[in-house]
Write a structure and sequence with these properties.
This protein is 36% helix and 26% strand. The chain is of the alpha+beta class and 89 residues long. The chain has one domain: 3-Layer(aba) Sandwich (Glutaredoxin). Strand 1, helix 1 and strand 2 form a beta-alpha-beta unit.
Length: 89
C-alpha cells in the first residue's frame, strides 16, 4: 500500500494533518507515503483529478490502483484503522 498526500502551503487543514501523518509514519515504518504540493506538482494533481479542496489522501494498492480517497482533516485513529484494515493491499 502507498498513500499519496496532496496539500498546499496555504491550506490550513494540511497544516493540521502534517503532524498526524508524521506520528503515523513514525509508528508504521513499513508504510510508503509520498507528498505532493497542489501548486507545484501539476502532473499528479491532473492525473488524480484533484480540485482545490485539500488535503487529499489517495490510498493505492500494490498495483497502483486507487482504492480509497479521503479529503479534509481526518482523525488519526480513523487513518490508523484504514491503514491496518488495508495493510495487505
Amino acid at each position: 500500500m502507498k498513500i499519496l498526500k496532496i496539500g498546499a502551503t496555504w491550506c490550513a487543514g494540511c497544516l493540521v494533518m502534517k503532524p498526524r501523518w508524521a506520528d503515523i509514519e513514525k509508528d508504521n515504518d513499513w508504510l510508503k507515503t509520498e507528498y505532493y504540493d497542489f501548486d507545484n506538482d501539476k502532473e499528479i494533481v491532473e492525473k488524480y483529478n484533484i480540485n482545490d479542496i485539500l488535503p487529499v489522501f489517495i490510498f493505492l494498492d500494490k498495483n497502483g490502483n486507487e482504492f480509497i480517497r479521503l479529503t479534509g482533516e481526518i482523525e488519526k485513529n480513523k487513518l490508523i484503522e484504514i491503514i491496518n484494515e488495508n495493510k495487505a493491499k
